[in-house]
Amino acid sequence: MAQFWADRGRETAEAEIQVDPDDLDAVRAHSNTAEALGNLAIAEIEAGKTDAALDHIEAAMRLYVEAGNVLGQARCQGNLAQLHAHLKAWDAAIAAQRRSVALREEVGDGEELLQAEANLAAYLLEADQAEEALETAGLAMRRAPAGSAAWSYAVAGRVVALAALRLGRLSEGRQAIPAAIAALHVQRRPECEVLIDELRAMAVQIDQVLAEASPLIELGPSATARMAASRADRDPTAAGRSLQAAAAEPGWSDVERATFLGEAGNHLFQGGAVDAALALYRASAEAYAAIKHPMAWHARSVLANSLLSSGDGPGAQAALAEILERCPVIKVRINALTSQAKLVLIHQADDKAALAGVRDQMLAEWIKPSYDPESIGRMGLMLCQIQAAIDGLEPAKATLARAKALLVSCNSDVLPAVTHIEAALAQSEARDETPVIL
After folding, report:
1. 249, pLDDT greater than 80
2. pTM over 0.85
């Protein structure tokens, strides 16, 4: 797939194609200028005629040098880099693309520089130079205006995601994916859907790692096997009791014991033993907190949502208030805001001050960048309902549109809710009434 991007995602400005690049005869008919020589070289690269392409790139370069055309020289170097990339000679491709970038910097053309840097980042990634690829692609994305729809912006976003994944800098990579997908959505290229699917799969992979890496990476083989066995048990109550008993056994680490308690709570909640599950969730959160483990806040979040699901509004409110006041983990805070909004809509739907308070808290997070579009998108679904109740339909529809884009970017399982809310807003608009969607 990476080579697919390399073949299809070359910066089209390098080629300056004015005729069909697949029609060599048509291109040769225009081969009396430096620009046409560049077109001919690109067509020959695509046709596998690399020796001829090199001759024409060098001929075009001589003409550009004689004319003092620095931008033309930069494009020739970009074409030369593309030729080497076609041969998978990545070191040579990188060297030529660096010269192209340097010449474009001399000219000061921002759009061309974005294209050149995006291609350089792609070549660096192919050469397993992930650190520099990430830095170069990030620089290219920062050059573009927010929400850019340029192909090179999408290329740079993909490189950031892949390079960050290789380097273990998951949050950084995850943040780049929605923008890259958004840029691809407006392209008129048949391969875009394939590339969008690749990025979405990458987002799911990163999300799984972010969600599961702590504390599972700290569990030993025996504890991991015990967890796997419990998840395979068709009787959730029996599995929960088994893990609860395991947590009391000697020999486990503090993290393993806390994890067993939380997992046992999950099984018992699924089996309908709500009170027992809530007690285990509390015990898990306390066990994580006792060792100052970052999962403590995630465990508190699970407890709060379980209290909300079980109908204990005051208990849920107390747990959510603690998270919103003290939690430093952005994702947990955003999820808590979403749950708090649901709680307010259930119990205080007629209290405009309460609705406005939770709306303002969500808006403060809504305007910030986040690596986690799933959490932000889910929050947006609640935010748009509150906005519809107190601000009117237009702000609600704008929020819903952004929430939908975020949730689409990560293949969220709550996308059907988006369709439901869209229909409810449309119906309310037609009837000129305040929607009730929750």
Report:
1. yes
2. no
